[in-house]
Amino acid sequence: MGGVQVKRHTKGKRNRRRSHLALKKTFLAICQKCDREVLPHRVCAHCGFYDGKEVIDVMAKLTKKEKKRREKEEEAEQKARGSELNPEKLSKKT
Ligand SMILES: [Zn+2]
Questions:
Q1: Structural domain contains residue 1
Q2: Long-range CB contacts (< 8 A, 24+ apart) of 2-8?
């Protein structure tokens, strides 16, 4: 049998117990190659790079449709990166 409640706990008691239950935001590193958020010490799922080297050939695993979409995305990103130097992104890298 589980424990049987003998006395009602106050709101304060309940709230103190729950004060430790909040979820913390997971820490995310930023991929050096594609500037996306990645789990630290993990290969980037988007570009397959880790520590400046290509570890997984991501494009080989994609279907034709996905490949086309990915190539378009990368072109757009390169254009955006070339035209505007975002001070926020620069500060994150250093
Ligand atoms: Zn990446």
A1: no
A2: none
